[in-house]
Write a structure and sequence with these properties.
CATH class of the largest domain: Alpha Beta
CATH topology of the largest domain: Aspartate Aminotransferase, domain 2
Structural class: alpha/beta
Helix content: 25-40%
CATH architecture of the largest domain: 3-Layer(aba) Sandwich
Number of helices: 12
Order of helices and strands: EEEHHHEHEHHEHEEEHEEEHHEEHEEEH
Number of domains: 2
Strand order of the largest sheet: 4-12-11-10-7-5-6
CATH superfamily of the largest domain: Type I PLP-dependent aspartate aminotransferase-like (Major domain)
Shape: globular
């Protein structure tokens, strides 16, 4: 008999009832150090007092009215995002998947309005993850996501990851857009170099193609800048944002230049819940905190400390780990054993991590993690690794 919850997840045998900062408490009272943060969602930790205050204050006034009316909280957050980023305009969603749908529509509508309705092809890359709607899985194209769900939305061309030669060969005046994650999350914490990012931007400029950046997982302070592309000194035409922007409240956004968004007029897109007062009140407080230069400097300092300790962990377990990759507090341990096995071993040490493709173990802690918690995390990862490596540890 099918369970009452559709069985599309292989859930861990853990159930949590409270959280505080970097810690979760299970129903049996045991505490777990959370290096997953709800898959990079709880950017400011669990039950952050400032976010609780923002949510409860707004909840006592107004929850939802729909986008039939002006929403002051939405306007405030949009103005903040425009002020702090490349964008001229913002559309709010409830999730990252929804941002992918709008980004695709926006790019194709742009070329339709320019009199090139057949310019619909969007170039994407192997290992990409842009969500699980039919459009988003077509964009990613991996067999794991698309098998059994055809026919798929046409118009996507998939290129090898970070293969600039392949991109140069594929991109042309027929290309509507290039859609890429500056750092692949589900794809294994694989970052593009600054040079590769600049090459993509240059090729888009030469052909007129729009550049769509998916910063759903790597954005909102995760890499030590407000958005990951800032490290490369460039800007996209369209950007997808979600996860950390709500700090745990469902919230997403598509940011765009006036040029890229020029075809999106009244009636071309909508969302019943997107940009609701509750979500935007929380999102505004998240953005205020995370965009503070002092906060981002702390993210970078802690990221350097964490990476240093992880390099020591790799050295202590050469049969288990191969290396560390990523940026900021979006880090991946490259594993020589199945990452899912290390995740399970971590449960015994009361530490939570997230597996990914290409033999990567994702470490996505709250950006508020402390130095002591970083040290404790590495100690627990060391203990989890010992069952796969008989050599004595020196961590």
């Amino acid at each position: 008999m099918i369970p009452s919850i559709l069985p599309t997840y292989n859930r861990a045998p853990l159930c949590f009832e409270t959280g505080e900062g970097t810690w979760l408490t299970a129903t049996d009272g045991s505490r777990y150090l959370d290096l997953g943060a709800g898959i990079a969602v709880n950017a400011l930790g669990h039950a952050n007092p400032e976010l609780v205050a923002a949510l409860t204050e707004q909840a006592g006034r107004l929850w939802h009215v729909s986008n039939l009316y002006q929403i002051p909280e939405q306007q405030r957050l949009a103005d903040m995002l425009v002020e702090k980023t490349f964008a001229d305009t913002v559309f709010f969603t409830n999730s990252g998947t929804e941002t992918a749908e709008l980004a695709i529509k926006m790019a194709r509508k742009y070329w339709y309005e320019k009199g090139e309705p057949d310019r619909i092809e969007i170039l994407t890359f192997e290992g990409a993850f842009h969500g699980r709607s039919t459009g988003a899985i077509a964009a990613a194209g991996s067999e794991k996501m698309v098998k059994g769900f055809g026919p798929l939305m046409p118009g996507f061309r998939h290129l090898p990851w970070a293969d600039m030669a392949a991109l140069k060969s594929a991109i042309s005046e027929r290309t509507a857009a290039v859609m890429v994650e500056p750092i692949q999350g589900e794809g294994g914490i694989r970052p593009l170099s600054d040079a590769e990012m600049k090459t993509i931007r240059q090729l888009c400029d030469e052909t007129g193609a729009l550049l769509i950046l998916d910063e759903v997982q790597c954005g909102v302070g995760r890499t030590g800048r407000l958005f990951a592309h800032e490290w490369s000194g460039l800007a996209p035409d369209i950007m997808m944002v979600a996860k950390g922007i709500g700090g745990g409240f469902p919230l997403g956004a598509v940011l765009a230049t006036e040029r890229a968004a020029s075809g999106m007029v009244a009636g071309t897109h909508g969302s019943t819940y997107g940009g609701n007062p509750l979500g935007c009140a929380v999102g505004a407080r998240v953005l205020e905190i995370v965009s503070d230069p002092a906060f981002l400097a702390e993210v970078n300092r802690k990221a350097a400390l964490f990476r240093q300790k992880l390099e020591g962990l790799v050295a202590a377990h050469p049969d288990v780990f191969e290396g560390v990759r990523g940026q900021g507090l979006m880090l991946g341990l490259v594993c020589k054993v199945a990452p899912a096995d290390i995740v399970k071993a971590g449960y015994d040490q009361h530490i939570l991590t997230v597996p990914a493709a290409h033999e990567a173990l994702r470490l996505l802690p709250p950006l508020t993690i402390s130095d002591d918690e970083i040290a404790e995390a590495v100690r627990r990862l060391d203990a989890a690794a010992t069952q796969f490596d008989s050599a004595p540890s020196s961590v």
